[in-house]
Specification:
The chain has 4 helices and 12 strands. The chain is of the alpha+beta class and 240 residues long. The chain folds into 2 domains: 91 residues; 121 residues, Immunoglobulin-like, CATH 2.60.40.420. Strands 5-4-3-7-10 form a 5-stranded mixed β-sheet, with no helix packed on it. A 5-stranded mixed β-sheet has the order 6-12-11-8-9, covered by helices on one side. Helix 2 packs antiparallel against helix 3. The chain starts with a helix and ends with a helix. Bound molecules: copper (II) ion. Copper (II) ion binds next to loops.
Length: 240
């Protein structure tokens, strides 16, 4: 039993050590860091759950009543022993909790610190549409009924910061692929940033119930190679 437990702990520690830093091309990549932290938390829960589960099973069988009239007897502990039993496990688990919390705060800082070379796109949420306005004045949208419009198009390798505002009710800008979500509110500008490290088409969906067509409030998010992005910008400019 001991061997199996320490093997499990070993696997968990090895996994935690391997995923220490995740960044792409020198730039932070919060989405990758998010996955690393999520795996750490899951392994943490698995290991602690296994330790307590196995210990509970052992005691359940080892100390079970063998006859109906058997009466249980607690061990007599000195004050020092009682304090040690309370404080040592508490310290170990609190240390683990604070370690995880510190990892979370570090990741939160990454999420809140926009890289200096980030490309800025203004996002306007409305019932029930996302509008993307680029620095050069291009406006891109997406019509869910006709499937027309490009949605949010970004070049691979450049971090993107979205400055967001709503013109009516509270919406929320959710991109599961990039592990980001932020409320979009009237009268207040909120932001998120993400790092499109590979060419990929994904979606942004509204993740705050905002009326009858809330579930239709989505648009494609296209991370494309820089040359393709430039071509798209030229095409949009000529159409405008
Ligand atoms: Cu909405």
């Amino acid at each position: 039993m001991k061997g199996r437990l320490s093997a499990l702990t070993g696997i968990a520690i090895a996994l935690m050590a391997t995923g220490a830093v995740a960044s792409e091309g020198g730039l932070p990549n919060p989405a990758a860091d998010w996955d690393v932290l999520w795996n750490k938390v899951l392994w943490d829960l698995v290991v602690i759950g296994a330790i307590f589960g196995i210990a509970a099973l052992i005691m359940l069988f080892k100390y079970r009543a063998t006859s109906p009239d058997q009466v249980g007897r607690g061990p007599k502990l000195s004050r020092a022993q009682a304090l040690a039993w309370a404080l040592i496990p508490a310290t170990i688990f609190m240390a683990d909790d604070f370690f995880m919390a510190a990892k979370g705060w570090t990741l939160w800082n990454t999420y809140r610190t926009v890289p200096e070379n980030a490309m800025e796109v203004k996002v306007t949420g409305s019932m029930w549409n996302w509008e993307f306005e680029y620095e050069n004045g291009i406006i891109s949208t997406y019509d869910v009924d006709s499937k027309e419009g490009s949605g949010l198009v970004v070049p691979v390798g450049t971090p993107v910061v979205l400055r967001m505002e709503s013109i009516d009710v509270i919406h929320s800008f959710g991109m599961a692929t990039y592990r980001v979500k932020e409320d979009v509110m009237p009268g207040r500008i909120t932001y998120i940033w993400f790092n499109p490290v590979e060419a990929k088409e994904s979606w942004v969906t509204c993740v705050e119930f905002c009326g009858t067509r809330h579930s239709y409030m989505y648009a494609p998010v296209k991370a494309v190679p820089p040359a393709q992005y430039e071509a798209w910008v030229k095409k949009m400019e000529s159409e405008a």
